[in-house]
């Protein structure tokens, strides 16, 4: 008897659950103990024995009905009904003859064992039946699927035979999960390779009546005697797809996603050793792709991005201005670092950047010899501690082919970087307006820039896909006539159609904010080689052009001098601070506060006289552009304290402590002032290390100034 009475939550009172399950042991136990209890109570109270039989019959019927509902096998139904009836029969007999005899107890035990064994056997049988039913269902699905695949295979064998005159065997057909096409694994007969099929890509696509923008593209298979034919049946290039909003960390070693293939696969650029070439005529979506590339680099934990854009720096500005203008904050409300590490918009700055890259690369070669030997490699192990430098040069290919004298100078340095610095973790991404012979005629680019993208936008002029992706046949500009769509090929992923994600300015701002704490800082070895050119890359005079080109909107002039003329400045780094300081004291103060915060949070603002103390060579964001603190009240107070300290002198900590309450000045800021005063002769440093004190020049007439 396997039924149990269970409480139904929704109705009042117990109901009989005929389908409730029991294991063989608990079922047998429940049946025998139940029968025994009914028999003893029945015998003691003189219950008519026929009642037990009636209950057993009802149980048998109830269970049979429940079993039929769940499609139990006939033998399961029979076993269960029999269990009920045998139990009821025993109970009837035991009520009549007394349940407490050896004969009654012995027979009940035997019935219990019998019910247990029968229940176990039916359970096993039901399980096997269920498994067989599932397997049969799967076989049916597989038969249907393989019928569809067989049909696809047969269709393409016939088509390839007819159009390419090649006999192929289809080893597998894989339908893409995205539902936008399928791939065939082919074995061309007679020693023919994949490229013979690739030649007929256009004719094959037409013969298969594929929609516009869909292709049948052959590529190498698992070995030379095999080929993969990718057939797209839905044109995914037409649709806009936005940059995924997962801004999680990336690495140069895991590759940086640049877009999606027609089968929905993400295509990644592996740039540890490769340079990249991105070609796209005006309006094809090249600027968008550059931003998307910068987004990937910003997300990486081991990459520093340097951007050269001689066209007013426009490629890099959206990654710098939101941070410098204080437009965005980190989630914790703190100021953010720019999304790129250096931006050059002029010939001089670009020269400085390229010279710095070369100096870093050459110095890394020498300084990291021990590390290379220890790691037994000739490739510098890139990590967050020793970051890869990615130089993104917008329209860099045009620089390389220019005949202008200044451009030629830049070109020579770019080529030097490409040629010399692969092993030391410095690579370039060049963009070009066209994939013309003059761009691709350069051996260095052909050899080193194997990550290639051609955004076509339907433009055929100057778009030689054969040169861009040599050995890849059947690629035609008109297959991707959409903005942001084109072809991408890497050493890992043969050239094929792809679509870049669309990225908008608000996403750029979000990424700058989300990745602010993730950017690495230049390793000390590299920072040493990079010197002031790098450390002072955010200095006022160096980034003044950003302010000139993109002045921050001025709020209407406040009538009262005391009122805050810049209510929107917040705690951010506002380029207004770069304006005429006489008229902008308040902005100065706010900018100074921001500087302090940056100093405290990141420790990345080396002081101007950093060469005095090489151990202070902290690479990173030098926002000294916003200093202009000369003669600030805090600085004057510090100077007064220095004077008051007399011949004994004082230290940075003591001064900072004295100023903290009134001005909120940090020790690091005071260190900067002291160093500046030592340099200009206002103060003299006495003693070394923890004993170092600073004495005002008035009190140390016999000490020679250091500066
Ligand atoms: N991946 C994309 N998906 C959808 N639309 C895009 C994509 N990339 C660009 N576009 C569209 O194309 C327009 C031009 O893009 P973008 O400015 O990047 O082109 P460009 O090649 O740099 O042209 P220009 O040199 O004139 O600036 C964008 O305004 C946008 O509407």
Automatic annotation (TrEMBL):
Keywords linked to the UniProt accession: ATP-binding, Nucleotide-binding
Alphabetical list of SUPFAM superfamilies matching this protein: P-loop containing nucleoside triphosphate hydrolases (SSF52540)
Region: Disordered, residue numbers: 551-586, 599-631
Keyword ATP-binding included in the entry's annotation: yes
Biased amino acid composition, Basic and acidic residues: 599-613
Signal sequence region: none
InterPro entries the UniProt entry points to: FtsK_dom (IPR002543), P-loop_NTPase (IPR027417)
Binding-site list for ATP: 280-287
Gene3D superfamilies: P-loop containing nucleotide triphosphate hydrolases (3.40.50.300)
Limits of the FtsK domain: 264-464
Entry superkingdom: Bacteria
Keyword ATP-binding: yes
Name used for this protein in its record: FtsK domain-containing protein
Origin species: Streptantibioticus rubrisoli
């Amino acid at each position: 008897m396997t039924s149990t009475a269970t409480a139904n939550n929704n109705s009042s009172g117990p109901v009989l659950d005929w389908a409730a399950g029991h294991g063989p042991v608990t079922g047998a136990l429940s049946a025998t103990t139940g029968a025994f209890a009914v028999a003893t109570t029945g015998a003691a109270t003189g219950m008519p024995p026929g009642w037990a039989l009636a209950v057993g019959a009802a149980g048998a019927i109830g269970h049979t009905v429940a079993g039929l509902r769940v499609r139990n096998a006939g033998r399961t139904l029979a076993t269960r009904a029999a269990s009920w009836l045998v139990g009821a029969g025993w109970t009837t007999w035991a009520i009549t003859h007394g349940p407490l005899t050896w004969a009654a107890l012995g027979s009940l035990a035997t019935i219990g064992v019998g019910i247990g064994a029968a229940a176990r056997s039916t359970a096993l049988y039901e399980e096997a039946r269920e498994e067989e039913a599932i397997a049969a269902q799967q076989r049916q699905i597989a038969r249907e699927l393989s019928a569809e695949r067989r049909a696809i295979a047969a269709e393409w064998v016939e088509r390839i035979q007819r159009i390419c005159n090649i006999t192929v065997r289809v080893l597998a057909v894989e339908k893409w999960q995205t539902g936008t096409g399928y791939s065939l694994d082919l074995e061309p007969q007679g020693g023919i390779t994949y490229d013979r099929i690739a030649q007929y890509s256009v004719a094959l696509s037409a013969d298969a009546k594929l929609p516009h923008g869909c292709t049948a593209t052959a590529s190498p298979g698992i070995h030379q005697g095999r080929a993969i034919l990718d057939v797209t049946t839905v044109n995914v290039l037409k649709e806009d797809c936005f940059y995924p909003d997962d801004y999680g960390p990336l690495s140069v070693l895991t590759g940086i996603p640049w877009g999606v293939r027609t089968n929905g696969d993400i295509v990644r650029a592996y740039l540890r050793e490769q340079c990249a070439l991105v070609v796209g005529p005006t309006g094809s979506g090249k600027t968008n792709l550059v931003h998307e590339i910068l987004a990937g680099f910003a997300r990486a934990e081991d990459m520093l991005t340097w951007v050269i854009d001689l066209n007013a720096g426009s490629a890099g500005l959206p990654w710098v201005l939101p941070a410098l203008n204080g437009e965005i904050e980190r989630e914790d409300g703190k100021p953010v670092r720019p999304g790129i590490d250096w931006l050059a918009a002029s010939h001089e700055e670009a020269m400085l950047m390229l010279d710095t890259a070369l100096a870093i690369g050459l110095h890394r070669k020498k300084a990291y010899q021990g590390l290379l030997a220890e790691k037994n490699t000739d490739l510098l192990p890139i990590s967050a501690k020793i970051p890869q430098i990615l130089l993104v040069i917008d329209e860099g290919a045009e620089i390389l082919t220019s005949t202008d004298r200044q451009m030629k100078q830049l070109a020579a340095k770019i080529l030097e970087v490409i040629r010399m610095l692969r092993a030391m973790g410095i690579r370039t991404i060049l963009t070009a307006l066209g994939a013309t012979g003059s761009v691709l005629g350069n051996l260095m680019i052909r050899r080193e820039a194997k990550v290639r993208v051609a955004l076509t936008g339907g433009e055929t002029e100057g778009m030689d896909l054969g040169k861009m992706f040599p050995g890849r046949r059947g690629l035609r500009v008109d297959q991707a006539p959409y903005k942001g769509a084109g072809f991408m090929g890497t050493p890992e992923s043969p050239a094929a159609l792809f679509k870049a994600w669309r990225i908008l300015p608000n996403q750029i701002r979000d990424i700058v904010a989300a990745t602010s704490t993730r950017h690495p800082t230049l390793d000390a070895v590299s920072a040493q080689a990079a010197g002031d050119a790098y450390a002072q890359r955010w200095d006022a005079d160096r980034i003044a052009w950003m302010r000139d080109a993109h002045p921050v909107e001025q709020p209407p002039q406040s009538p009262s001098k005391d009122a805050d003329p810049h209510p929107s400045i917040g705690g951010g780094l506002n380029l207004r601070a770069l304006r005429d300081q006489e008229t902008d004291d308040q902005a100065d103060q706010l900018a100074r506060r921001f500087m302090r915060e940056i100093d405290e949070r990141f420790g990345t603002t080396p002081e101007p006289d950093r060469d005095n103390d090489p151990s202070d060579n902290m690479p990173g964001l030098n926002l000294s552009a916003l200093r202009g603190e000369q003669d600030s009240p805090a600085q004057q107070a510090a100077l007064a304290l220095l004077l008051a300290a007399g011949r004994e002198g004082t230290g940075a900590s003591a001064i900072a402590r004295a100023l903290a309450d009134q001005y909120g000045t940090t020790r690091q800021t005071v260190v900067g002032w002291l160093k500046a005063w030592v340099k200009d002769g206002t103060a003299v440093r006495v003693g070394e290390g923890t004993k170092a004190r600073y004495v005002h020049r008035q009190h140390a007439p016999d000490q020679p100034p250091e500066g």
